[in-house]
Design a protein that fits this description.
Blueprint (H helix, E strand, L loop, with lengths): L1 H32 L5 H11 L8 E6 L12 E11 L7 E8 L7 E7 L5 E11 L11 E6 L3 E2 L22 E9 L10 E12 L6 E8 L10 E5 L5 E11 L11 E6 L3 E2 L13
Antiparallel strand pairs: 1-2, 2-5, 3-4, 3-6, 6-7, 8-9, 9-12, 10-11, 10-13, 13-14
Keywords: Signal
């Protein structure tokens, strides 16, 4: 009887010991699977520590009119300069202060722009407006000079030029504006009946910038009672004066009718009659 009770008590104690051992193993396995890691915390610390100060690494300058060669001189225009600022990744952000110029630095204007944290580029536009001049001085070389957060000067950029002067002015038509006529030498002091030659010199004044051509005219030495055949006098392009000399030769009459009054009658390129030229003086009978 006592042995049965002892065996039963031993069996019960053994069962309790085996049950307790099985519960301890399950807790250990489950806990290893749920252990939290600090990976997200480590990543946040790494990002914060890699933030760098804001600096301007480079600036590009672009023009909305890269050339003005196809724009007429004298035209009004606006040239827009676009500055693109470049910053390092993971920068802390801040403000960029700078000046800009459109005339190669002879004059400048202050400006600034705000940069957000991590922003890697920003643009700023400025412009020149005015009338194009053939001297090709404006619009001039434009760019920016950064003063903070660091010093940086961009390339200075200007449009290709010069502006288009347009077609050359039309050549003036070939024309004679006036004729001068003089006679010489003096007849005074020469004996009547002696041989004598009187010179008449016509000076044709031609419009400036003409293409050249031929002056066609006749002349007289007896006040128009008779005249020469047509004379053609060539004129080069741009020539502004041309001269022609004609003569009267013969014996000086006592009537003083010769040499007579000289006149030039031009028919081309336009029609003009010169003033009369009278030989000075008269012959004498001594």
């Amino acid at each position: 009887m006592n042995k049965r009770i002892q065996v039963s008590l031993f069996s019960a104690l053994l069962a309790l010991v085996l049950a307790a051992c099985g519960n301890a193993a399950g807790t250990t396995t489950s806990g290893s699977a749920d252990v939290p890691t600090n990976s997200s915390s480590t990543k946040t610390q790494t990002t914060a520590s890699s933030t760098v100060p804001l600096t301007v690494m480079s600036v590009d300058i672009a023009l909305d009119h890269p050339t003005i060669r196809n724009i007429a001189c004298g035209a009004n225009m606006t040239e827009t300069y676009t500055a693109t600022f470049h910053f390092p990744a993971n920068n802390a952000g801040g403000q960029v202060n700078f000046t800009y110029t459109t005339n190669n630095g002879r004059g400048s204007q202050p400006a600034s722009l705000s940069v957000h944290r991590g922003q890697t580029s920003a643009t700023y536009t400025f412009s020149w407006s005015g009338q194009l001049d053939a001297s090709n001085t404006l619009p001039g070389r434009g760019g920016v000079m950064v003063t903070s957060p660091n010093a940086y000067t961009s390339d200075l950029v200007a449009p290709l030029g010069p502006c288009n002067p347009g077609p050359p002015p039309a050549a003036a038509p070939f024309s004679v504006t006036s004729i001068d006529l003089v006679a010489g030498p003096e007849v005074t002091g020469h004996r009547c009946g002696s041989s004598f030659t009187e010179n008449y010199t016509a000076t044709f004044h031609i419009a400036v910038g003409g293409p050249g051509g031929s002056i066609v005219f006749q002349y007289t030495t007896n006040n128009g009672r008779s005249s020469s055949s047509n004379v053609s006098l060539p004129v080069a392009a741009g020539q502004t004066t041309a001269t022609y000399t004609f003569y009267w030769s013969g014996q000086l009459p006592q009537s003083h009718t010769a040499p007579g009054i000289g006149i030039v009658m031009m028919s081309a390129p336009n029609q003009i009659i010169s003033p009369a030229a009278t030989p000075p003086g008269g012959c004498n009978n001594m």
